[in-house]
From TrEMBL:
Domain of life: Eukaryota
Protein name (record): Helitron helicase-like domain-containing protein
Annotated source species: Didymodactylos carnosus
Helitron helicase-like domain: residues covered: 54-172
Amino acid sequence: MNSHSLGIHFGSSKPANEYFKPNLLLGLFPTLFPYGCGAIEDLSRPIKVAFRKHIQYLLTYQDKRFETHHSFMFVVFNMLQKRDACFNARLMISRSYFKNVVNQLQTLTPNEIQTALANLNKDKISSISDPRINTLLKGIKTVGGHVHGSCQSRAALRTKIHALVYKKGLPIRTVHPADTYHPLAMYFTGVNT
């Protein structure tokens, strides 16, 4: 099997399309797929398996070759992040109000965006007065909030933790060591160790 039959072209200046390319991971990781089969999103498969489910299955192989590979997990996580971001962006642009948002965002100049970024980098808490920039930031937070590992998803998790602490109180863990074996308890009772 040569590299052209797998659909791999080395040395291209353009990034490879990773959507519905079942041979992409086969070519990237020939040691993980030594027989050239078992591709993710293979269209010839009689029962379709979702990308995420197939990755979960591969990571639970008994021989742990996918789990312990030095870069497989990072490449696949990156692919999942991009897919989540694109999916959430597609959901956002399908909303009825998005046409108005696009019209507002098209009036932004690169200098205005750079000034807003500089202001955001100076202050942790910023008060940007331009509503167009605020709309852009809100869209970024909305899309990024559903992408695992992003700053927005971590902020959303922190918010959930704060809400849980507010509702249920701080988590408390009490540890009671056995007094019969504790060195201080044995000392005070007169037992020599």
